[in-house]
Amino acid sequence: MNDTFDTSLETNFSGKYNYGELVSLLSSDKDSEKHFAILELDEICSQQDAEVLVSNLVGQDGKIREATAFKISELTQNPEYVMFFKSEKIFDVLLQGIMDINGNVCRQIVNLTDNLGVSFKKYLCEKLPESINNILKEIEKIDLKSKQYVISKRNFQLYWCLDALYNIIDLIDFAKIKDALFVTGNFYDYTIREKTAKILTKSDNCEFDDLKEKLKNDDNYYVRRYLS
Question: Which of 137, 128, 69, 131 is nearest to 103 (CA)?
Fold first, then answer.
């Protein structure tokens, strides 16, 4: 019988599990056990345990990834636990979470910039430009015969990377993202142009003046509203 989320947690996991048992279940090969452990976990006691939790953000069922993202967000709001999530190994996984195919996962990880503070923002300043450029290269390779889900997936990744970029734009060297922003500012999908316009509200670089003016007069209201 396949392991599913339809299994009643109350029936299968009756009784109180201690912290160590919950952390152990985070590595279970049964989704129902793993899901239960993520939901029940209300503290984190070491960086190693934080890494185990965060590892469920990738390569797992969508419900597991989503529950993990929400749990990371919840735990990192507590100053007592946030220090355990500040490692490059964890940040590498969080960056993958920003590019998830589930918007709920992406949103939670993008919002972690407030919880994790300067260290995560500096990491993103270094890594996001590269990720955005790589996505743009992949999009450029896509031909018109490609299936729509392939196109949508790349655009979706680009959208959330730009959303994350906005949160750190005050710290980043615009030279690192200048070329990418000229591409995204002229992108065919208005949601990408919208994110670009929002980012450019934080730039006084005269090199973007023409692009700002173009976006200010964009056909789409959601794009031009930021610069009008």
Answer: 69
pLDDT in tens, 152-188: 889 999 999 999 999 999 999 888 899 999 999 999 9
- 36: in domain: yes
* Residue partners of 209: CB distance under 8 A and separation at least 6: none
Domain that residue 117 falls in = 9-172
Condensed to tens digits (0 to 9), the pLDDT of residues 38-82 reads: 999 999 999 999 999 999 999 999 999 999 999 999 999 999 999
Residue whose C-alpha is closest to residue 181's, from 220, 143, 128: 128
Give the Cα separation of 40 and 9 in Å (integer): 11
140 and 185 housed in the same domain = no
**Angle (CA) 17 79 71, round 5°:** 45
168 shares a domain with 183:
no
Task: For residues 36 and 22, give the distance between their C-alpha atoms in angstroms, rounded to a whole number.
Answer: 8
- Of 54, 77, 65, residue with least CA distance to 31: 65
Where do we find the tokens 């790349």? Answer: 154
Is 182 a member of any domain? yes
83/193 same-domain check: no
Could you tell me the pTM of the whole model? 0.90
